[in-house]
Amino acid sequence: MKHNIVLIVCMDQEYISSVEYDLASVLGRDYVLETIDDTAYLEEYLKSSHRIDTLIIDEELAGEFCQKQNPAHVYQLSEGDESSGKINKYAGSQGIVQALGDMYLLKDTNEQAHLTHLINVVSVSGGAGKTVTALGTAYWLSRQGYKTLYVDAEDFQTYDQILGCSTGDEACDRKLASAMRDSSKESIESIIQADFLDYIRPFHGIPASYGIEISRYYELVNILVESSDYDYIVLEHGAGVISGAIMRQILAGDRLIIAATQSANSRERLARFLENIGQYSGQSFIVCGRYIKDRPDCLKDPVIDDDIPIAEYIPEADKELTMKDIFERKLLRDTAEAVV
């Protein structure tokens, strides 16, 4: 399908950040939102011709830009002027929506409501409570009334210990693997278990030993995202190196939760990880696991705090947490509220 490009050119990065997600959430499916907020990239962009349906641009940049490009529609961002063809920056995303009009928007509230949000959950250090973070977030999203699916894309799946569910035996694993190879709606529904929340049933053994690679989980998640049967899919990735496949899945999602600890080592790993996902445009959050109040909190770093909020601190526990603990202590509820 040919999409119409809506391009915002503004060197005010704070403004871009404040409007980008809201606009991406309400634009119709025939439109794709792109942004430019870097001078060097803008200079490079102008060296070649681009197809632009609608341009929203700082008024001081409009003249040179329109000499080199030929957008079909142009709106200039100003600081107060709301005359024809102008958008007041102080009106935020609502100012842009009002200027564009209904033809640019999702046709009805049902179309918008039925879009599936993909939440990727990763960790930058061992023992950060990644699985608890993923399950807890999915659980509280479900409790808020959102249809939510949890998927564990790991070789060693241990979330059954938190859920208190059974992984079955080798025969169950073979049956599960057989169903996972089939992309039909019936087969996918057969591997989803409903309990505290919906989740893809875990393997007792290693999925790869039954011919199921981690990439198959990604394929199934993408099918479910396209079907829009769920409001949210929480996808937990394996610990360790962030592979190219994981990075592509992160970029395909619109939410990212990073499990970390308060240690200096975890902070260093987090900083390197954030450098590697510089092109990610979705919403990101940090959950600090195994938090001990009396120890230094290395996550309280201006470089990190300015970019990604810490959604929640999960206190160190004297035993492995269960769904009962998550419910009784309301763990990850704040995180679930933050990602909505």
Which descriptors apply to this entry?
single chain, 340 residues, alpha/beta, Rossmann fold, 2 domains, 15 helices, 39% helix, 21% strand, globular
Number of helices: 15
Structurally, the number of domains stands at: 2
Number of strands: 13
| Percent in helix | 25-40%
Task: Please give the CATH architecture of the largest domain.
Answer: 3-Layer(aba) Sandwich
CATH class of the largest domain: Alpha Beta
* Strand-pairing-aware structural class: alpha/beta
What is the terminal separation in angstroms?
A: 29 Å
Strand order of the largest sheet: 8-9-7-10-6-11-12-13
Protein name: CobQ/CobB/MinD/ParA nucleotide binding domain-containing protein
GO molecular function: ATP binding; ATP hydrolysis activity
Domain AAA: 118-279
InterPro entries: AAA_dom (IPR025669), P-loop_NTPase (IPR027417), ParA/MinD_ATPase (IPR050625)
Overall description:
The chain is an alpha/beta fold and about 350 residues long. An 8-stranded mixed sheet has the order 8-9-7-10-6-11-12-13, sandwiched between helices. The chain has a 5-stranded parallel sheet with strand order 2-1-3-4-5. Helix 1 crosses helix 4. It is globular and about 65 Å long. The two termini are about 30 Å apart.
